[in-house]
Amino acid sequence: MAVEARTRAIEDHQYRGHNLVFIVGSSRSGTTWLQRLLASHPSVQTGQESYVFEYVAPALRTWKGHRATNREGGRGGVGLPCYFYEDEFMMALHEYMMRLFDPMLSRLQDSDVFLEKTPAHARYIPEMLELLPDCRIIHMLRDARDVSASMLAARESWGSVWAPRHAFRAARKWTNDVRAVRQNTKHLPASQFCEVRYEELIESPAIVLGELAQFIGLEWDGSAIAEAIANNSAENIRAGGGTSIPLGGTFGTTSETVKEPKDFVRKARANTWKEDLSRLDRLQVWLVARRQMAEAGYQWRVPW
């Protein structure tokens, strides 16, 4: 390895994610709204969902799986552990990861943070914490019933490719995502992990944003917070306004900012499941999600 390349690799390996803040959670939990609100602050840079750990985490998981094979007897092991020592592999993986993060981090000033919002990163928190031990995580939590209703509505329009067809599948996705986040962050200090309830953000956005500013380490006065809330109202975002989310790379050649599809922002209220879910939908969500809901503070004894 050339001297300059190895120096870069060592520097990348030492990066611990101090200026990275991740928003995770189940889809349709309000993560994009929270992203727009926080990105209103001049020291917060952001971008479209990167899914970066869907590129990185499988490599780390595969390494660990292959590393374990030498304890099973037989041929003595398979995979890259046959060629790399662990410190060598981790350095290479860090270098790869840092190349992927470079468009997000390279333009940050010393006081800036990059706010990365990919809800699906809920499934990769162990890898995030292993590779970026100083990163911070915000979990956007919303009632499983409202999330399921929103997913089913998305299925009928802009989300037909990914949204679940049935309520029990939507509830299962919510359950798996919430369980993954809560299990893998339960030992993190309050300085590194913060959980935001959609219902509280709806009811008291200024209070919640003030608390998040402290969590991230931002100075954000009340008038600026109020402006961010007004600018990112549901009505304004539906009309094409709100804080912009930049697009770059290949997709940036056709549009410089994210354009949300019609009906992306729905009712922007809590408890709309009472209007949206049929009796059968409610029963399916109840059967799948009621235990995880109770653990998350959403008590629901009967589905109607």
Describe this structure in words.
The chain is an alpha/beta fold and 304 residues long. The chain has a single domain, classed as 3-Layer(aba) Sandwich (Rossmann fold). 49% of the residues lie in helices and 8% in strands. The protein has a five-stranded parallel β-sheet, sandwiched between helices. The longest helix has 20 residues.
Characterize this entry briefly.
Helix content is 49%, strand content 8%. It is built from 13 helices and five strands. The chain has a five-stranded parallel sheet with strand order 2-3-1-4-5, sandwiched between helices.
Low-confidence stretches: none
In round numbers, the mean pLDDT is: 93
Helix content class: 40-55%
Estimated structural class:
alpha/beta
CATH class: Alpha Beta
**H/E series:** HEHEHHEHEHHEHHHHHH
Fraction in beta strands: 5-15%
CATH topology: Rossmann fold
Strand order of the largest sheet: 2-3-1-4-5
Quick one: biggest sheet? 5 strands, parallel
Q: Tell me the CATH architecture.
A: 3-Layer(aba) Sandwich
Q: CA-to-CA gap between the ends? A: 65 Å
Query: What is the overall shape?
Result: globular
Descriptive key words:
Rossmann fold, 5 strands, five-stranded parallel beta sheet, 13 helices, alpha/beta, 304 residues
Give me the secondary-structure topology.
Blueprint: H1 3-14, E1 20-24, H2 31-38, E2 44-46, H3 52-67, H4 86-105, E3 113-117, H5 125-131, E4 136-141, H6 144-155, H7 167-185, E5 193-197, H8 198-203, H9 205-216, H10 222-231, H11 234-238, H12 273-276, H13 279-295
Parallel strand pairs: 1-3, 1-4, 2-3, 4-5
Helix pairs in contact: 1-4, 3-4, 6-7, 7-13, 9-10
